Amino acid sequence: MGPFEMVVGIVLIVTIGGIIKAKHGIRRDNRGNEYFVGNAADKEETKALLAEIRALKDRIQVLERIATDNNRAVSLDEEIERLRDRSQI
């Protein structure tokens, strides 16, 4: 393989790599740093996952309060039903 073919091969490999990165949403800024550019579906999925995490954190707080609450004025069954009602929203 001569030097010309080697240069063409390197350029071809770099070009194909750039196309694959662009297809997967990886961009490069002016400083050469790479970053991911997602599509709208990714953003909606991220919002849905964050909302689910918030709901789970709320449920954990309620369960911790139930487990550590010394005042048993509210029965455990009522608290669980309230959690079920909240999760169906």
Describe this protein's structure.
The chain has a two-stranded antiparallel ribbon. Helix 2 runs antiparallel to helix 3. The radius of gyration is 27 Å and the shape is rod-shaped. A hairpin with a 5-residue loop joins strand 1 (26-28) and strand 2. By secondary structure, the protein is mostly helical. It has helices spanning 3-23, 40-68, 76-87; strands at 26-28, 34-36. The chain has three helices and two strands; from the N terminus they run αββαα. The protein has two domains: 1-37; 39-89.
Question: Descriptors for this entry?
Answer:
89 residues, mainly alpha, 2 domains, two-stranded antiparallel ribbon, 3 helices, 70% helix
Overall 3D geometry?
rod-shaped
Question: What string gives the helices and strands in order?
Answer: HEEHH
What is the strand arrangement across the widest sheet?
Answer: 1-2
Tally the structural domains.
Answer: 2
Q: Would you report the number of β strands? A: 2
Mean pLDDT comes to 80
Beta percentage is: 5-15%
Describe the structure concisely for a colleague:
This protein is mainly alpha-helical.
Write the layout of secondary structure elements.
Layout: H1 3-23, E1 26-28, E2 34-36, H2 40-68, H3 76-87
Antiparallel strand pairs: 1-2
Helix pairs in contact: 2-3
